[in-house]
Design brief:
- The structure is a single chain.
- By secondary structure, the protein is α/β, with parallel strands linked by helices.
- The protein has a 9-stranded mixed beta sheet. Strands 2-1-3-4-5 form a 5-stranded parallel beta sheet, with helices on both faces.
- Helix 4 packs parallel to helix 5, helix 5 runs antiparallel to helix 12 and helix 9 crosses helix 12.
- The longest helix has 18 residues.
- The radius of gyration is 21 Å and the shape is globular.
Length: 382
């Protein structure tokens, strides 16, 4: 039986937008998705130019998100979109995700999940009520050697985990480009569109999700500082946090967008009783393991000794670099498998979103108070 590619609609991601193009490349990479509809911009000209550039038929380039939902629902089931990719600024994530879920469409949403825990919980409730799948773009968890690190820790290779250190350093906001017309910087530093955290919500959430996902542990409480280095900026551009995990492990999280000269320096180090591992996003095909009683190991993507779950994420032979788009595509592939009912491949979803929103609120509360530690609300077990 020949399967059709799942049909994708997109809201946001018009010409000049970085992340919308990445979603489109990732979704298309394995042939499992076809972009067929979109409401790419509230600017009519920009919206239509984007649709034209992507080869969409004019009647499926919609003037608004609401028009897209209505127009697609009016189509026969075999023609309408299967899912919506939400690639807008943060303040639109919850209303759009909830509306799409209630209209019967699956949702792949940019992170952070929402503007607050309450909004995130509303998304989770809508996903449960609709029976539709909800995915989040925590891209770095889609890298093959991140999966290798997670699998080795899960089987006990390092022994009981003691230390978790994650850092995410960028330098692109070192100058006040948010006040100089840079659209990407402008909304990310606007509390009305970005939410409670600037750097915290934008890249601190990536660091937090990666630390919990790979270690298999949950952060119990935080002691944090939020700093705004650029004068006049309304949200944090630098985050430092001490982490306490529920099993007694300790950790640190450092995220900054004013680390001048840094590009996309996401690094994770985890140490247990018997050894430790290290992975860096800018050298993603290498996982380093260090031991108390034997020489260090270098594990390479496509090389020998990989777990089956890691090998399933690879597309090219050893020595052929895979990177950001391929990692993103792994999430879209798993999302498609869930929609089709093909197995139980993991992808970040409601549980990850709720955890990161609770982390944001705990960090903001702690940084604004004189308390030494603030609990991260465990919520119900998602």
């Amino acid at each position: 039986m020949v399967r059709h590619a799942l049909r994708l609609g997109m809201v946001g991601g018009g010409e000049g937008a970085f992340i919308g193009a990445v979603h489109r490349m990732a979704a298309a990479l394995d042939g499992g998705w076809q972009l067929v509809a979109g409401a790419f911009s509230t600017d009519a000209g920009r919206n239509q130019r984007t649709g034209d550039a992507l080869g969409l038929v004019p009647q499926r380039v919609y003037a608004s998100f609401d028009a897209m939902l209505a127009g697609e629902r009016a189509l026969p089931e075999g023609e309408r979109i299967d899912a919506v990719a939400v690639v807008t600024p943060n303040h639109l994530h919850a209303p759009m995700a909830i509306a799409a879920l209630e209209a019967g469409f699956h949702v792949f949403c940019e992170k952070p999940m929402a503007m607050s825990v309450a909004e995130a919980e509303a998304i989770g409730a809508a996903a449960k009520a609709s029976g539709r799948h909800f995915a989040l773009a925590f891209t770095y968890s889609g890298y093959p050697l991140v999966e290798e690190a997670r699998a080795r820790i899960a089987r006990g290779d390092l022994g009981a985990i003691r230390l978790v250190q994650v850092e995410y350093l960028q330098g692109w906001l070192s100058r006040p480009i948010d006040e100089q017309g840079n659209k990407q910087a402008e909304w990310r530093t606007d509390p009305a569109r970005a939410g409670l955290g600037g750097c915290l919500g934008d890249i601190g959430t990536h660091a937090f999700q990666l630390a919990e996902h790979v270690s298999g542990l949950r952060v119990d409480s935080v002691s944090a500082e939020l700093t705004t280095h650029v004068p006049g900026r309304r949200l944090d551009d630098d985050v430092s946090a001490l982490l306490r995990f529920t099993d007694g492990a300790r950790g640190t999280l450092k995220a900054s967008q004013v680390a001048a000269g840094e590009e996309n320096g996401l690094k994770l180090r985890i140490h247990g009783e018997q050894g430790g591992l290290e992975w860096a996003q800018m050298e993603p095909n290498t996982l380093t393991l260090r031991w108390l009683d034997r020489p260090a190991e270098i594990v390479r993507a496509g090389g020998p000794g990989l777990q089956d779950s890691t090998a399933a994420l690879l597309r090219t032979p050893s020595g052929h670099p895979e990177g950001y788009v391929e990692a993103f595509a792994n999430l879209y592939r798993a999302f498609a498998a869930a929609i089709r009912g093909d197995g139980d491949r993991w992808f970040p979803g409601v549980a990850d979103g709720l955890r990161t929103m609770r982390f944001i609120e705990a960090v903001v509360a702690n940084a604004a108070s004189d308390a030494k530690w603030t609990m991260v609300d465990p919520g119900e077990k998602e």
